[in-house]
Amino acid sequence: MHDKTQSPNAVEVRNVCKYYDQVEALRDMSLDIPRGGLTSMLGPSGCGKTTLLKIIAGLLPATSGEVFVNGEAVTGPGPERAFVFQDFALLPWASVMRNVAFGLELRGVAKSEREAIAEKCIADVGLNGFENSFPHQLSGGMRQRVGLARALSVDAELLLMDEPFSAVDEQTRRKFQEDLLNLVKSQNRTFLFVTHSIEEAVYVSDQIALLLPRPSRVSEIIQPSGFRDKDPDSIRRDSEYLDIVDDIWKSLRSYVE
Amino acid sequence: MKLFGYELPAASSLLLWGLLWEIVGQLELTFFVPALSEIFATLVEISTTKPFLKALKETGQAFALGTSSAILIGIPVGILMGINKLLDEMLLPWVNVFLSAPLTALVPVLMVLFGFGLKAIVITTALFAIWVIILNARAGVKQINPSLVEMANSFGANSWDAFSKIYFWAALPEILSGVRIGFIRAVKGVIIGQLLISIVGFGALFELYSAQFLMKHFWAVLLVLFAMAFTISEFLGMLERKVSYYAASR
Question: If residue A53 lies in a helix (H) or strand (E), which one and from where to where?
Fold first, then answer.
């Protein structure tokens, strides 16, 4: 039924429920993530978006239901998925180089080979010259670039990003969003992005899944089409961009305390 | 330390106390406190004698064996307790009991179990050091950022990778301070062992000198012991400072 070559979707979430002890985080959630481009999951806090992302990553087990990545059921983390953490999750005792190469190190890639790959990924995220720095010497934005480079280095088809920009300041975040657009264009991968920022979601996404809480469900899937090919500077002034931001806020406002 | 606006050198309090000691000694107020200069003279005198060197070797050997077994067992046990809830609940009461237990009172039992030789002394030494090492390694693992563990899992880390590449390093600052305190306790342990189990090493020297009221000799050996403990503690403190750059930002 789930044939890898036939499935147009990178991720298929089927009737997933998740309970933390007695607390229901997800109820009967179903969602398809198309292959390629960037899909974001947007919703107010408590809608279970991070939980769903971690279930897709294989870091949390679903209480019931199934998740398929490339048509294969998820039972745990896999090499075709890489995760970018909200709090960066860098090894504070290791240099940028070792941090970026750490995913490859765990997969048993030889040192010279993994450092060559890591060096390229460090350049891709714009951190040349910081290979021997330590995380505590970097700003928040630079630390997340290290986290992103680590996820890129393992050559996973699917990048799972859990509110990656929420811990960096507003200006860094804007620069980051622009860089992310270019990265998505230049890389032939699928990005799945969790955020609670409406503007951010609309700005970077090819597809937005709007999640609502209590019970958590996908209320709407929005596919901005008109401004995706414009240059980053003019997107924020595009009328479709502004309309979508407004519409999403109207749907969400009643759920925000 | 500052006095009347002047920055004093690091060991100046020691110098002050040393001076006071010397004065009390010179005044010959009590036989219990001989002058510090005489103690040092005695130290130089006995430090080349055969019984002293033999005692140093015996104590050093028991101390090294005791502390290394405490480290080799204590650190992994502490880390595993921090990781595994079941193991933690099984072992934590015992660790706390032994941490506060008067271990000296247990020494006769150890003699019955392990005989009167080096083995019993090494075990006594290890028992003095190990509990605080376990507790500190455990505390170090408990405060680890859960994201780091998730991160390792997401890249397919096995248990050994997680243990050796994440948990150990994340807990290292706490582990090192546990080892430092453990070593200081082990100094006590080795002497108590040597006093109670078999009269060897520095324990034997203490026994001999105090029984014969040779206070200069007694203080000389105590100074050697203090210097040993101080050096080890300073060395480990230096290692701790080496990892402190990341201790604050885990």
Answer: helix A49-57
The SS3 call for residue B9 is coil
- The pLDDT value recorded for residue A1 is 45
Which of A106, A107, A139 to mutate to probe the B interface, most B CBs <10 Å?
A: A106
Residue B245 with chain A: CB contacts under 8 Å: 134, 136
Complex ipTM tops 0.90? no
State pLDDT tens for residues B73-109. Answer: 999 999 999 999 999 999 999 999 999 888 888 888 8
pTM of the model: 0.83
The pLDDT value recorded for residue B248 is 67
Q: CA-to-CA distance for B66 and B176, rounded, in angstroms? A: 17
Closest CB to B154 among A59, A87, A88: A59
Cβ contact (<8 Å) for B169 and A93?
yes
What is the DSSP-derived secondary structure letter of residue B167? I
Which residues in B have their CB inside 8 Å of a CB on A?
145, 147-148, 150-157, 161, 165-166, 169, 172, 243, 245-246, 248-250
Count the Cβ atoms, other than its own, within 10 Å of residue A45. Answer: 12
CA A18, CA A41: separation in Å to the nearest integer?
A: 17
3-state helix, strand, coil in chain A (%, to 5): 35, 25, 35
Tens digit of each residue's pLDDT (9 = 90 or more) over A125-151: 889 999 999 999 998 889 999 999 999
Residue A53's nearest CA partner among A83, A23, A97 is A83
